[in-house]
Write the structure tokens for this entry.
Amino acid sequence: MSTETHIEEPALPAQGELYGYLAEYDTPGELVEAARKVRDAGYTDFDCYSPFPVHGIDPAMGIKRTILPLVIFGGGFSGALGGLLLQWYCNAHAWTWNISGKPTWSIPANIPIAYECAILLSVFTTFFGMWAFNKLPQVWHPLFRLDRFTRVTDDGFFLGIEARDRRFDADKTKTLLQEAGAIALEPCYYDPDPKTRMMPKWITAFIVASTAFALIPFAIAAKARNSHSAEPHWHIFPDMDFQPKAKSDTANDLFPDGRTNRGEIAGTVARGWLENDDVLYHGLENGQWTTGFPKTHRDGTPFVVDAKLLARGQSRFNIYCTPCHGYDGRGQGMIPERVKALGGVWQARNLVEAPQADGKGGVVIQMPNGQLFNTISNGYNTMQGYAAQIPADDRWAIVSYVRALERAQNASTDDVPADQKGAVQ
Ligand code: HEC
């Protein structure tokens, strides 16, 4: 540790205004001591510079605890609030959409996004708040003009007092710094050329360019919202949208007829798919809707209308038909009920309605079995066909069950066996 202080002549011509004094100290401990002395002497416009954070320097310099945490809390809080508001606006205000009867806005579902927004805004306030409070970015500083100061990133511990401090006095300040144990002391002057204090042009250009660049997505979104186009979308990342494969109903050079779809080869049938039983597969008998039932099942076993077939029909009916036609077949399933609750009308046919005296109504009761089978297979108006989901055998089981329902829903006391009539209330 040296005890002698060298006062050096400034390395650069001293034409500029005086910025302040820079004193060098040998160790972090001495720097802390010097900072305390400078603070006690009443200085406020001074700063310490060291290659690494020095413990205890903040209280020694009289720096108050940063308010950054409070600002970050504010940022995080507005993030959480903004996230909640955004979800409320999208889901409960601008575009309410009933999804399985769930509430359009409920706090538990909103927590993940509110949480993410809180984190995002806290991080942004931390990052940019730190820059702002430290007055960064500072691309230029008068101390950079001193060669000695370059060691601040290596092994130099410095204390600088600015000339603008109201206690600054060329002689007294110098003495104070020396008495505080400075191993070197030099004045620092502003560069006389004001241009050097300005932000380098390339940084300005970079900021302008990157800001303009960052606005491009917003411009694209604004354009997309205000224009209409029949052109296909741009695919910046096509992912697997385009593949070298042949899609149905497209052109194809591979075949002489230029079509991708290859029809069935004439005169051939896939094994097991002959389906040459008109009654079983189409409900037709001699070109008319059959009024009976098929003779055999698909596997060739005889078709018998018995309790087993009805039970099968009931289970299939309850799965496939009740949502619209209801368990009793009166056309009041959950779907029409729901439509009614929402204020609309969408009626499924009453399958068990009896014909009136003038012959009107009772459409399904009067319909031949073959036509009922065909309706199940291929649909009717707004009811879709079920051939793809329900095998032909089961469609016939449903026909038998619909017939049973029709009888059950229109039963009178005459249908009750004579020996059990007494039990009927
Ligand atoms: C998604 C709702 C829905 C389901 C499921 C549904 N249907 Fe229908 N069905 C309808 C509607 C709607 C009509 C009336 C269509 C019209 O009149 O335009 C209808 C009409 C009918 C008719 C009368 C056709 C005619 O010619 O008048 C029959 C028979 C029928 N359905 C039977 C069935 C059976 C059997 C099933 C089960 C395999 C079934 N439906 C499943 C909605 C449905």
About this structure: The pocket of heme C is lined by residues 320-321, 323-325, 335, 348-349, 351, 363-364, 372, 375-376, 380-383, 386, 398, 402 (CB under 6 Å).
